[in-house]
């Protein structure tokens, strides 16, 4: 299960990199917000 979560985080980071390189700063803020929600969901 830990490995699955780690893999999801890696995919999320790769998605973040592609988003940053193709979209504007607003998309980055949205991604950070979603990542915080995702992170708190995993930890709780």
Task: Break the fold down into its secondary structure elements and pairings.
Elements: H1 2-22, H2 25-43
Helix pairs in contact: 1-2
Structural commentary:
By secondary structure, the protein is mostly helical. The chain has one domain. It has two helices and no strands. The protein is flat and about 30 Å long. The two termini are 15 Å apart. Keywords: Membrane, Transmembrane, Transmembrane helix.
Quickly count the domains: 1
Distance between the termini: 15 Å
Q: Supply the number of helical segments.
A: 2
The helix content, as a percent range, equals over 70%
H/E topology pattern: HH
Number of strands: 0
Binned strand content: under 5%
Uncertain spans: none
- Report the structural category: mainly alpha
Largest sheet: none
Mean of the pLDDT scores?
A: 79
**Whole-angstrom Rg:** 11 Å
Shape: flat
Summarize it.
By secondary structure, the protein is mainly alpha-helical. The protein is built from two helices and no strands. It has one domain (2-43).
Q: Notable features of this structure?
A:
0% strand; transmembrane; transmembrane helix; 91% helix; mainly alpha; membrane; single chain
């Amino acid at each position: 299960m830990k490995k699955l979560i780690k893999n999801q985080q890696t995919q999320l980071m790769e998605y973040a990199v592609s988003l940053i390189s193709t979209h504007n700063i607003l998309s980055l803020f949205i991604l950070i917000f979603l990542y915080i929600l995702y992170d708190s969901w995993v930890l709780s």
